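Bug report

Summary: structure tokens for Oligogalacturonide lyase differ between web form and batch submission.
Environment: batch mode, default settings.
Steps: 1) Submit the sequence below via batch. 2) Compare with the web form result.

Sequence submitted:
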Amino acid sequence: MRFLMKSGIAGVLLAGCLGAIAQTAMPPKTWVDRDTGHRIFRVTDEPGSSGFYFNVNAYSPDGGIMVYTAPDGIHTMELSSRKTRLLIPNPAAALRVSEQDRMGSGNRAIVVGRKTNSIFFSRMDATTHLQTIFKADLVSGKVTQLATLPARATISTVNADETLGAGVYTETEAGAAQEYGRNSPRSGPLVQPEGKGAMMERRLAARIPVVLFTVDLNTGKVKELLHSTDWIGHLLFSPIDPTLLMYCHEGPWHKVDRIWTIRIDGTQNELRHKRTMLMEIAGHEFWGQDGQTVWYDWQPPKGEDFWLAAFDVSTNKRVAYHLQRDEWSIHFNVNKGATLFCGDGGDPGQVAHSQVGEWINLFHPEWRKNDDSLVEPTFWKPGVFEREKLVNMAHHNYRLEPNVRFSPDSKLIFFTSNMFGPSYVFAVEVAKAQSGASDLQSTPELAAKFAPTPSATPADK
């Protein structure tokens, strides 16, 4: 659909025009966080650069390349050397306009393919206003045009065998105009819009007719999966099963049944978490790398009790790890094998209202021992997280969500931060730095030298 969904990723740009991003000196490339003992790297050099949304694949199938975005286009980074390259430049016209206009005129990264070394992206035709889908080879840069979408349509995910894209479009021009009105979050895909709560209430109440669809990336054929007046978003195909699509009913979480899956033939449209408590919420869902497990933030009730929960899509068996209020994060992620988890923390304005929650966190999972308790097949398996703090984010403006993700080898956690003013992509080592590091620094104090008061984006609205 034409309005900007948070399930879209940071392929559209977080920065204002390039001229608005002025900095007298580049921030340091590496240091050791004095508060945690973990080494941090700034891995991008482009002011306004950003990683993908936390649940969208950014890595080549062999785990050797990561894709990120910047105001000038779509970039790749070779993980072994951390050498970066501008792969798909934005059109020159897109560099001269505001961020909001560039969202329609630049290249919008969608996802890195699970099967081939490809980044899928879209571009809107300035005359027809139709979105066309392309893919580019991550090594050669060769671009292949795939399909042009119907009016008011865009896609936000590609399936595991790279044959289908999935998206949503509004059924009428009037509905599209309403999407683009004051209800639409226009701040950027990783940035929380001003008045987010009120915006979500208005959008849910609008009941705009939309269509959830798939598009064949070889033929351009569109298949409608369902029509709805609910607010549909956060589409995400299984990383393993090319026939299984997850999506959500958007809106204030306590007012919607959020997490759903559906097959690409339109069957098995299933609600995956049914609340049993007043003000219970579940959301920010993401696939485990096994393609069988869906993880999500679960709070029974909202803002009071905190869990990272999961269900197996085949068996519906459920697990949940408990967190303390100060350990809660806007987004969580998991490594291959689910042996480690990470979170990006949150400031006092988030749902947990933690006063000391501004950290990049590493979580070591531990199952709760069964002391000869009553057991039933439908019982959830409970566990707890043991937290390890990795980065002090006290000087980060959390309107820009850090969106953590593990590197393929689980040795690094990547995140986006505006602590130095413009956003950059950073990485922190999971292992502690060797003792006696000569570049031990307070991360907030270091960042304050470059940006006394960081804004949500380099060109904060």
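Above is the batch result. After comparison, the two runs are identical; trailing whitespace caused the diff. Residues 1-23, 96-103, 182-187 have pLDDT under 50 and may be disordered. Residues 38-448 form a domain with the Methylamine Dehydrogenase; Chain H fold (CATH 2.130.10.10).
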